UniProtKB/TrEMBL annotation:
Belongs to the protein disulfide isomerase family. One of its GO terms (molecular function) is protein disulfide isomerase activity. Its EC number is 5.3.4.1. It holds the Pfam family Thioredoxin. One of its GO terms (biological process) is protein folding. This is protein disulfide-isomerase. Residues 14-137 form the Thioredoxin domain. It catalyses: Catalyzes the rearrangement of -S-S- bonds in proteins. One of its GO terms (cellular component) is endoplasmic reticulum lumen. SUPFAM superfamilies: Thioredoxin-like. PANTHER family: PROTEIN DISULFIDE ISOMERASE (PTHR18929). It is an enzyme of class 5 (isomerase).
Length: 215
């Protein structure tokens, strides 16, 4: 092979390499899923206190199947002004995987102000969006007490408070935030009523209302 042939071959490789780099960069720019590494993990969460993160392995078939279903909610939630979605290559970032107890792939965790919460939703775009919205919205839903219905599944706590800025509502909200994945929490606001709490179960039986006002 002559010098000119080598030069042409080298030039072709350089052009091909440049094309690959540009394509990869364009592909990253087109994605709404953030790529996290040990170098940018902490900085990312300084700017985004709440985010859903997927820990994956490049060779994992389940991860490849999840990819399009993860990309779609990232775009939908971005347009809705909700939380961002991110991903970590757990093979390339073993320290992060170990730190957050990643034992299989893919593993999804919701990080909220530094605390990781295991993802318990489905693996389709709609189910991911539904889970994120239910996990990151207000922990307590304000309702009209007259419209309370027995839940089809799970436990529902129904509180009655005098005002949303009351001490009782603040305490109830704190409890709801810590247990939001275990039950549904709703509240009715009535300035003339006594503070109270009832528990509704699927079978229809509920506890008697307890007066928390101390009077």
């Amino acid at each position: 092979m002559g010098v000119n042939s080598i030069c042409r071959l080298a030039g072709g490789v350089l052009v091909l390499s440049a094309a690959c780099v540009n394509f990869a960069k364009a592909d990253d720019e087109a994605s709404d899923v953030f790529v996290l590494t040990s170098a940018n993990f902490d900085t990312f969460f300084e700017e985004n206190p709440i985010a859903l993160v997927e820990f994956y392995a490049p060779w994992c078939g389940h991860c490849k199947n999840l990819a399009p279903h993860y990309e779609e909610p990232a775009t939908r939630l971005k347009k809705a002004g909700s939380i961002p979605l991110a991903k970590v290559d757990a093979v390339a970032e073993p320290d992060l995987a170990q730190k957050y107890d990643v034992r299989g792939y893919p593993t999804l965790k919701l990080f909220s102000h530094g605390k990781p919460l295991d993802y318990t939703g489905g693996r389709t775009a709609d189910l991911i969006v539904e889970w994120v919205e239910s996990s990151t919205g207000p922990a307590v839903e304000i309702i009209d007490e007259s419209a309370v219905a027995t839940p089809e599944k799970g436990v529902m706590f129904v509180a009655r408070v005098k005002a949303e800025d009351s001490a009782a509502f603040k305490l109830y909200s704190e409890v709801a935030e810590s247990l939001r994945m275990s039950a549904k929490f709703v509240a009715g606001v009535d300035a003339a009523a006594k503070d109270g709490l009832a528990v509704y179960r699927p079978e229809g039986d509920n506890t008697s209302t307890k007066n928390n006002s101390g009077s």
